[in-house]
Design goal:
single chain, about 210 residues
């Protein structure tokens, strides 16, 4: 798509139709209260400028990730003040309007990297970052990754993936804008999530990405 002429190719039109339909199906199928935990954690982020282990535990449940892991035990051994230090740094980076969204996302993701459970894998980290900047960032998980693949995008899983993911999210937001829709990054990730999994399984399968 030309950002100057807003010319949309047939492939991009097909992508948009897939995203739009997936977003509609998600809204029609998933309870409107499902994101209450995310919203509560986000409110605490805004009020306090950081979150601790209790809030991360809530996001772990919200993402339906496993808690019976070595990293979760190691995280529990980290003082809450240290956890808050790193999440505070991530909060500032995620909301740094002087940086393009993908660069802010990459910086915020890097800020979490010292914590157990956040060294590899972006599922839980992205949940924390969306709580930090809900109007700007998007959740990453294996379903969203697969959804991108179904749309013809090749997102590499090497280091720095979350920043690259957010670059694609922004491209798809631009595509929505060309079609007259004002989508947030969260709208795109929900569409990708639904697109990347069978509707009958979308609420039944946990995100099994290792941390």
């Amino acid at each position: 798509m030309s950002m100057q002429t807003n010319e949309v190719t047939p492939i991009e039109t097909e992508r948009w139709h897939g995203l739009r339909d997936a977003r509609i199906e998600y809204t029609e199928t998933v309870s409107e209260v499902y994101d209450e935990v995310l919203q509560t954690v986000s409110a605490r982020f805004v009020h306090e400028g950081s979150i601790g282990k209790a809030e991360i535990g809530g996001l772990l449940l919200w993402k339906r990730l496993r808690a019976d892991t070595k990293w979760s035990r190691k995280l529990m051994d980290v003082p809450d003040a240290v956890v808050r230090h790193h999440t505070s740094t991530a909060y500032v980076a995620a909301n740094d309007e002087s940086l393009p969204t993908d660069e802010a996302a990459a910086a915020a993701r890097s800020a979490l990297g010292a914590l157990p459970g956040f060294k590899t894998g972006d599922a839980l980290a992205s949940a924390v970052l969306v709580a930090a900047a809900p109007e700007r960032l998007a959740v990453y998980d294996r379903r969203a990754h697969r959804g991108l693949g179904l749309l013809g995008f090749d997102l590499k899983s090497s280091r720095g993936r979350y920043g690259r993911y957010m670059r694609l999210i922004e491209d798809l937001r631009s595509l929505a804008s060309v079609h007259g829709e004002s989508w947030k990054a969260r709208d795109v990730d929900l569409a990708l999530y639904w697109l990347g999994g069978k509707p009958s399984e979308s609420q039944a399968l946990p995100d099994k990405e290792t941390q």
